[in-house]
Amino acid sequence: xxxxxxxxxxxxxxxxxxxxxxxxxxxxxxxxxxxxxxxxxxxxxxxxxxxxxxxxxxxxxxxxxxxxxxxxxxxxxxxxxxxxxxxxxxxxxxxxxxxxxxxxxxxxxxxxxxxxxxxxxxxxxxxxxxxxxxxxxxxxxxxxxxxxxxxxxxxxxxxxxxxxxxxxxxxxxxxxxxxxxxxxxxxxxxxxxxxxxxxxxxxxxxxxxxxxxxxxxxxxxxxxxxxxxxxxxxxxxxxxxxxxxxxxxxxxxxxxxxxxxxxxxxxxxxxxxxxxxxxxxxxxxxxxxxxxxxxxxxxxxxxxxxxxxxxxxxxxxxxxxxxxxxxxxxxxxxxxxxxxxxxxxxxxxxxxxxxxxxxxxxxxxxxxxxxxxxxxxxxxxxxxxxxxxxxxxxxxxxxxxxxxxxxxxxxxxxxxxxxxxxxxxxxxxxxxxxxxxxxxxxxxxxxxxxxxxxxxxxxxxxxx
Length: 464
Description:
The protein is of the alpha/beta class. The protein contains 14 helices and 21 strands. The chain has helices spanning 3-11, 14-32, 37-47, 53-74, 76-83, 102-107, 109-112, 139-154, 175-179, 205-215, 224-236, 258-268, 376-380, 415-429; strands spanning 121-124, 134-137, 164-168, 184-187, 192-196, 219-222, 248-251, 271-272, 275-276, 285-287, 293-295, 300-305, 314-321, 329-340, 354-361, 365-368, 372-375, 389-398, 401-408, 434-439, 454-456. Helix 11 packs across helix 12 (258-268).
């Protein structure tokens, strides 16, 4: 919204604010769901279980060739790169092209763009690990990306316009809302209720649960960390969530750990289906009904590389995305890491390669000279057997020391819980690194509304 629109919104009563949200979405969805959207959706719906792995790879090569030619012809930056490098348009020597880091992308955006920003749709990344990026999509890019996403969700019954609880970085609340313990706004037209991810505090969470029970969403979408806190609060306070309300949970933007999946599925009495993409346009990884993640080869090229940039089954993810014609991503180091399942076959009928695990952001690890890198999943499991910790965050500003911020429930948390928690941490990070636990009233989320369990600020000091 513009500053004038924000002022009007701020001064409006709750009902009018909901109407403004509804109108805003109607206008935004016109860009997403018009022109070629239905054509893209039909394409992916028909192809998802009909194509052999060989045919998928053939389609990937064809789309790669078309995308490379487009970038060469329309992007000043890539035109210069391709002029000075021996490369092939058939994917055979993609490794000849340079890997583009976030910093390289950020510093060269104006020459990478293929269209003027006024002629496309701007997307800003959350910037949880640094500065935000501003990429521009063509209208076809946006429609194809939403077709890919909707085709995934449609597999589990979701349709646009069905009652949905959405937890994202939209900061829509006013001080009046907080005073009235009202932490949501509603799109009346599409039946979406947006719940704030900026007010996830123990004193407010019962209002979220009460409203979710009243609203009866068929689907929950958004930041899993927010839904996780709500579920944990419900479990800790014996607030039962009714069965047979929510058909599926679709998390976005954050890594799913085993604990997060277990808590969400057990409390909300439904299944969680994961997918991976990014605001700047990464190709898609989607979960099937068998709870297996699949690369979507029709959406891009996925390279998994080790610390020497050699192909590996586990390592950093470097992507070339076919739905980024406005800001071409070619061999882009997305900052995440995954592990492939070698020679895995899934009975769901989707013949795309299987991902064993999305390990999350490369920065989402703690480094101990005694142990090495300890990933987010291991750190999150430090709560096993611990009662009374609402939330914690690990901050690392030096190789020798960890700062652990902890929100605790004073009525439940005991000294023995601290001892178990500390032992669990020691089991994971070793005995040589210093650990300082600091109890705080609240651990804030990022500006994007996301919560970061790990904040590693020493990446430049760690030898890979």
